[in-house]
Specification:
The chain contains 23 helices and five strands. By secondary structure, the protein is an all-alpha fold.
Length: 656
């Protein structure tokens, strides 16, 4: 494969002057100071359900660490809203499931029903419908501890392991994260364990109705045939559940356990995500695993390594994000004045290559002839590389000049590019982990009340792949780019923005697409480009920054509205600079915002959640976003105002 990518190494560059240069240099120093062992891995914070579930697991495993639990209790209390509830994100409204889980965890840790924070939480729960209004996963938690009957949980028979691929439901039809959570959960559903707690630890006081009177769903929209059909199926499955011959059930349990053990090989835990790991631990114990069982020991260790413990507080992360943090940080620092020969940049490049995945995972069921070569999100998650990480890693490697004069590196990059091309969906877009995983009807089953059972194409991931392919020298006539661009045009919102599936929200999606549009050299005068630029400019706050709350997923009228944050301001700036003029007053005001809000350490402060796990139900606070995204925006601005191309624009290739 031919490569002719140019580099700016060794060229004379104009001397940086002004406030933006000073801010850029301070930001670079801060980010490089956070590097450890040739990579970056910042904290990844979710809502209070994760540390609460960590406490539940400790009770199941009969482990006690009073010092750690006291710190987790302090964390939960700090995150409590004034009205007694707990939210899914900073400054968000109370969420019933999060509130019930946090309350229950505090009770298990010994907090009294009469404590002020418990009284206010209980009052909020009862005023808002009671604990019967929690989601499916919280019902499962309550059933595990005997607070609800297992009949209130939707039926998920373990015999699903035998379903053929042509059936309306099959594991290959659901997303990676659903697969990893569901399979060990099937073992739990089959066993229906109840872990004893004391009467003082019970949360029966949170229910408006008697828990014994509750059924699977208390409100059914019978006017929607799909919903009603799945509810009837749920009732039928529960009726026949006890009629399944023991030998068939045991074979199904063996199959489910085998799948879970195969997928938890290595140190990363099953799927590299906390909920799946917890389910796997419980499933292994229910299947008779001894305390020294290797899979059990590794999984428990992986869970414990998610805990962040400080002097006064502690919490549990939903997963680790080293590959994502490293590739984003590398994209940022390679746009700064830091020389590409810097050993830290070279070290990060090698670290990324060391974490490239060559094992065929679940994704290969749809594309069996496609060779692997992507990157996962975590330190180890070989079954599940993803399109987002892989495309962003590739752009970081190209910016860092990893391919230059290194045939082996070019071959490894080539493998990753081919994997990305093979993961394109028939609709022209790209999804995160699978190909053609868009059976949206499955989000109607009672189990899927979170509405995220599948992994369809999204605008942000599609744009990321287009941007990466453009860096390899492809233009909009290249068929994968052409098809992806058509997908983006079809999915543009009427106001000109794009929905952000993996970041909050329309600011994130619109930045992603504008970066791709700029990368392929699309004419900025085109109507759809101008519409996007005008929307992004119109979303700028009076302070010069941009912000958008997670509630825009619930109410589209809130698109682009929220208090300014460093990361979202950086996204907007990167989008505007990619597809619009650098001398725009909107860009200047945004840069001024970043300079004015830089802290004394050279980084930026950000409490708001700007990452998305599952829209409307699960959000993330990436602690690294406030470090590398503002730096990236400042670096691009400095280059462009100095009349220099960005590293992205300077990487010109004919790889294919």
């Amino acid at each position: 494969m031919n490569s002719a990518i140019s580099s700016t190494i060794g060229q004379e560059k104009p001397r940086q002057v002004g406030k933006s240069a000073k801010s850029l240099n301070r930001g670079t120093e801060f980010l490089m100071h956070t590097m450890r062992d040739n990579h970056w891995c910042f904290e990844l914070e979710a809502d209070v359900t994760i540390p609460s579930e960590y406490i539940f697991l400790q009770r199941i495993l009969k482990r006690n660490n009073l010092v750690l639990e006291e710190k987790i209790g302090a964390y939960l209390r700090r995150r409590q809203n004034v009205n007694g509830s707990w939210a899914l994100y900073e400054d968000g409204p109370g969420d019933m499931s999060a509130t019930v889980k946090a309350y229950f965890a505090l009770k298990l840790m010994g907090h009294s029903i009469d404590d002020i924070h418990m009284v206010s939480a209980r009052k909020w729960v009862l005023q808002n419908g009671g604990a019967e209004a929690v989601n499916v996963f919280t019902r499962i938690t309550l059933a595990l501890f005997g607070q609800l009957s297992w009949k209130t949980v939707p039926a998920m028979p373990v015999e699903m392991m035998f379903l053929p691929k042509w059936w309306f439901f099959h594991l290959s039809k659901v997303s990676y994260w659903s697969r990893c959570v569901i399979v060990p959960l099937l073992v739990i559903f089959a066993k229906r364990p109840v872990y004893a707690i004391t009467s003082e630890q019970s949360v029966s006081e949170l229910f408006v109705q008697s828990p014994s009177s509750l059924t699977t769903l208390d409100e059914i929209n019978w006017r929607q045939p799909v919903n009603a059909g799945f509810v009837l199926l749920d009732r039928g499955l529960k009726f026949v559940n006890n009629l399944v011959p023991r030998i068939i059930r045991e074979r199904a349990l063996v199959k489910a356990e085998g799948w879970a053990r195969e997928h938890c090989a290595g140190d990363g835990g099953i799927g590299g995500i906390f909920p799946a790991m917890v389910n796997a631990v419980i499933a292994f114990k229910l299947r008779g695993a001894e305390d020294d069982d290797p899979d059990l020991v590794r999984t428990v260790k992986a869970i414990d390594e998610l805990v962040i413990e400080a002097d006064e507080e502690a919490y549990c992360q939903p997963c680790l994000s080293p590959v994502w943090d490293t590739c984003l940080a590398l994209n940022a620092v390679t746009e700064t004045e830091l020389p590409l020969e810097d050993p830290r940049i070279k070290g990060a490049v090698q670290w990324l290559f060391q974490h490239q995945v060559f094992e065929k995972g679940d994704w290969s069921e749809k594309v069996p002839r496609l060779s692997s070569g992507g990157w996962a999100f975590q330190y180890e998650n070989t079954k599940y590389p993803d399109v987002d990480d892989t495309s962003m890693v590739l752009m970081a490697l190209l910016r860092a000049g990893a391919h230059e004069n290194d045939q082996k590196a070019r071959e490894l990059i080539d493998k990753a590019v081919n994997w990305i091309l093979g993961m394109q969906n028939p609709d022209g877009g790209w999804a995160a982990f699978d190909v053609d995983n868009n059976a949206e009807y499955l989000n109607k089953i009672p189990f899927a009340d979170h509405g995220a059972l599948v992994d369809p194409s999204t605008a942000d991931l599609t744009a990321r792949c287009i941007e990466m392919l453009a860096m390899l020298g492809h233009d909009k006539n290249f068929p994968p780019i052409r098809d992806g661009l058509e997908f983006l045009k079809r999915n543009q919102e009427s106001n000109g923005s794009w929905y952000g599936r993996w970041g909050v929200n329309y600011v994130y999606g619109t930045w992603s697409v504008l970066a791709a549009i700029g990368g392929i050299g699309e004419e900025r005068e085109k109507a759809y480009v101008q519409k996007a630029l005008r929307w992004l400019e119109g979303a700028q706050n009076e302070d010069g920054g941009w912000g958008e709350s997670c509630n825009s997923y619930d109410d589209k009228r809130m698109a682009g509205i929220g208090v300014s944050t460093p990361s979202q301001t950086a996204w907007a700036l990167l989008g505007l600079m990619a597809a619009g003029p650098i001398d725009s007053p909107f860009v200047k005001r945004g840069i001024d915002y970043l300079i004015a809000h830089q802290n004394n350490d050279g980084g930026w402060d950000e409490e708001m959640y700007t990452g998305t796990g599952f829209p409307r139900v699960f959000y993330l606070r990436y602690h690294g976003y406030r470090a590398y995204f503002p730096l990236w925006a400042l670096a691009n601005y400095q280059r462009l105002t100095n009349g220099m191309p960005t590293r992205q624009a300077d990487v010109i290739s004919s790889f294919l």
